[in-house]
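User: Please run a holo structure prediction.
Assistant: Happy to. Please share the sequence and the ligand.
User: Here you go; the ligand is zinc ion.
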Amino acid sequence: MHHFPVPYPDELIYSLVARAGIRSAITSPKQLLEQVFGDRKVIATLDLPSHLSAISSLLVNTGKFDVQRLIYEHTMFPIYAPFVDESTRIRALKGMGSRSKSSVHLMLGAVASIVKTSGNFRSCFLCVAEQQQKYGESYWSRLWHLPSLPHCPIHGLLNQSSTSYHDNRHTYHLYDQIRCNIPRNNDNNDKELLHYLAKKAQEVLLLPCQKSPTKHQWSKFYNHLAHDFSCGKGTKQVSHEMIAERVIKKVAIPELAVDFNMDTNWLRTIFRHHRKAFSYLQHLTVWSAFIPDMTVSEIIKEVKKKGKANVVVTKILKPESERIEEKHIKWRNLISTTSIKKARSLSGGGALYAWLYRNDKEWLLAFNRQNYSQSAPRKKKVNWDARDRVLTKQLLRIIDQLDTVITGPRRSKNYLLKQLKHSSTLSKKLPLMPKLTSTLNRYQESTFEFQARRLTMTVMTRTQAALGMSRWQLMRSASLSEERIQPIVEKLLDWIVMESNIN
Ligand SMILES: [Zn+2]
């Protein structure tokens, strides 16, 4: 097959195949399967596809996309990988590369899990606007298809379609062909929790290819975690009641509601000896309650250290107290040159923090508290009134500049904020800056304004390229849909179509 497209960041293989169809102008689904896979029976799968060696060979000229990379960067596989046994991980990788109709979903526990993939398409309009801006087309991102978590890690609640990819077993749908609607009950109180989970899930998706920890290591990790946070009973047991008290507030997904009448509810079993794999959301929910600030890769590193014979080694090397003192000195030195947060993001610093956290938590937390409180009063007081004036002026200048440019993503409040200096800390401080807030409210681009601008951009580019101006062509290129188009934009569209017919 010629002109096979190169995947965009986080683009699902499913989406890539759909784009390949359009590029080669293949309208028959079976013919597309034949051309891409050399097999007319391949089933179009959104999350965990197989037959990936065929895709890899179509991309061989790029020299970049071996099967493993396709799996880790363009499927939902990484959301399962760290939580299943190493042997299962290897078997699933093989299954996804090969032509066999292997049951990857079964292997990875996606079928039996209480956290399910719905199969329905989801999308984020803001991500789509960014895709359009960067690449001139839209595609299905894997960030929108986290099982049981309809939340974009960047922009929040996702739009959902009533169509499932299961509906057509052999057809690959383009993003433009599926209608996604804004969900009705979007007043979820757990927005912050959902946002945290989606962010962490993104971290899991981005983990590099690596061996999975064993069930035994996971069991140990959770046992130690309970003891570290005073939820232990005796030397080995854990107090499930105290754990529940901590975790229950952090359950944001209905599927994960804990049934306290059941001795085998998931929260109890994850803190017992692991007999089966747990889903990513179960792990993330527990982490959010105990170790919200630890990065996912720090956690996985920590888990992999469990159950190794390091206790014996330390005894031979040095007395425990001496080792701990050495680490104290290292941490003190590090914090004298940089902040705690920064120190933890350094490769040696993160490991040191994790070590101290495991072996001498009380000292670490006390030291960090003291260190933080010493540096806090030194901060200068901010004059918010003055900052409000300066930033408002800056914003007005930016708006002036933007007014002269037709292209670009939607100029939402968030987008305008991002154009300002130190934008990342500003959104939380908006209540202190009334002028800036009202300017943002006044000048942000409304839905209809953005639709009208997209339509104008489309007409300009199509005119330059001498392309057709039929109603559907314009709607499609401007990403307008019958459901969402605003009445005033519809009138504009009708007028353009009529005018271009006359000419
Ligand atoms: Zn998004």
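The mean pLDDT is 88.
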